[in-house]
Amino acid sequence: MSHTEAVARLGYALSDETRTRILLALREAPAYPSDLADALGVSRQVMSNQLACLRGCGLVATEREGRHTWYRLADPHLAPALSELLRVVLFVDPTCCGPEGCTCT
């Protein structure tokens, strides 16, 4: 895969608000899909579909724990990269995120 294809794949993953919210949540800690669905206010079916997409993009990985599976970012470099991307967003639009969280969509 070329650098261009890899960046395009990341861009595709980030082009959906739910997928972006999942990545930002997993930046903090691994999670079970049901917990992510509850935290983000989406159905478990939507969560399953979005996690499958992120897994296909190579951005998340799974870990089995008994009968349950939890998700984490696939590479440790992703968390700081997402944090840096948030700093870029704030540079481009300083009014985007306030104390109550991000308001840009």
Automatic annotation (TrEMBL):
This is ArsR family transcriptional regulator. Residues 1-93 form the HTH arsR-type domain. NCBIfam families: HTH_metalloreg. It comes from Haloactinopolyspora alba. InterPro entries: ArsR-like_HTH, HTH_ArsR_DNA-bd_dom, HTH_Metal-responsive_Reg, WH-like_DNA-bd_sf, WH_DNA-bd_sf. SMART domains: HTH_ARSR. Pfam families: HTH_5. One of its GO terms (molecular function) is lead ion binding. PROSITE patterns: HTH_ARSR_2. The lineage of its organism: Bacteria, Bacillati, Actinomycetota, Actinomycetes, Jiangellales. GO terms for biological process: response to cadmium ion; response to lead ion.
